[in-house]
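sorry for the late reply, my laptop died twice this morning and i had to redo everyting from scratch. anyway the thing you sent over, i finally got around to it. pasting the sequence first so we're on the same page, its 439 residues, then the predicted structure underneath. double check i copied it right bc i was rushing
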Amino acid sequence: MTKTIYFILFLYLSFFKLSAQINLNGTVYFNNEPKPNVTVYLNNTTTGTITNENGQFNLEIKNGVYQLIISHIGFQTITYNIDTSTYTKPLAFHLLEEEFVLDEVIIAGKKNNFEWDYNFSIFFRAFIGTSSFSKFCTIQNPDVLFFEFDSENNIFTAEATEPIHIKNEALGYDIFYDLKHFSIEKKITNYLGYSYFKALKGSKKKWIKNRLKAYNGSQVHFYKSVLKNSSKKEGFILNQFVRKKNKDRPSEEDILKARKIVSKQKKGGFDINQFIRNVNKEKPSEEELLKAKKGVSKSNVAHNFSKKTDISEISIDSALIILKKAKLPKYIDYLDESEITSSNIVHKENNQTYLQFENNLRITYLREDEEKGYILRNPSSKPRKAFPQTSNIIPLAEKFRIHTDGVLANPLDVLYEEYWSYEKFAHALPLDYEPNNEN
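ok and here's the structure:
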């Protein structure tokens, strides 16, 4: 009787395991002919394959909602959202040739090795990052990248003629990233694409440790904890803050006028840079002030920053004070609500999950401190004690949908600041990574 119960239990568990997975299959065509060697994968995962000689593919996947990617060099990438609960029959996809046309300016930049190398270094820092893990990342096919800088609008962009092959020896992955958008504008980096992860062979013990470090405190970790209403238990503290303009900082109009005055005085032979340095360090001497004023203004009236004035009305010493104050931050953050709970920001609507909150979020992860590279990331940074990792979420939409795997439906709905903006693609993990399932 006992053996019978065990046998029935074994059959039940086996059936449950099988029922939790499905076989996703289909065929890829080009010009109505089956296309072999096409890469088919679930976006941001390690689950993928290539089509056989008959253009067919088969993937064994867990039940859920996914983004299926069909990719082949020289052809347009196909994206297909699939819900396994409604999947009933094999899929069919038809490839279209890629019409990839590069501007002559971009091609010319490629020929200039020095210029391309400089642009590549900008791209690498903005995309891969400068953290300790980034030092173990290499782009295996850099020649597929092309860059352009729009000097008029101060926008840096990058394009790739085929998926970027990234080898991350810190986390133990070969990653193929299908770049669809990359730009740096106003010091803000935005990029979108599709990624396929393949595990490297090697020191698995080291990679398990590094993967856990990359996961803990990450955006995905945070979002998953919020969905489970366990963010505080898992080490996250959520504060809401308001961002307002700094009233002590001069207007952009006054700063521009002050720069013009300083520029004129510099042409006159006066060492204005040294004078600015002196102003920043300590109050200038009377002799220096007289030199600064000579030939520019006889007025000793303090400048009213709120009043619109002509350039001629601003004295050189007032201009220097304006430029000194121009270094003040444009905005100041004020705490609005401290230690809010996950339930305050998670909302359900039409069987979809959304995050919605007023103002901005500051997330502090208490279980891991900043690394040294983050503390010294700016040329003017000075060594200090490492604090717990703190990041900001600035919403760019009223609300943003989030999937159960901890990923936003539209990543461009938010802007990340502070630590999460420092941990870039060098810290990327596949969505099917589970910290408790690695051996």
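The radius of gyration is 28 Å.
thats about all i looked at so far, will dig more tmrw
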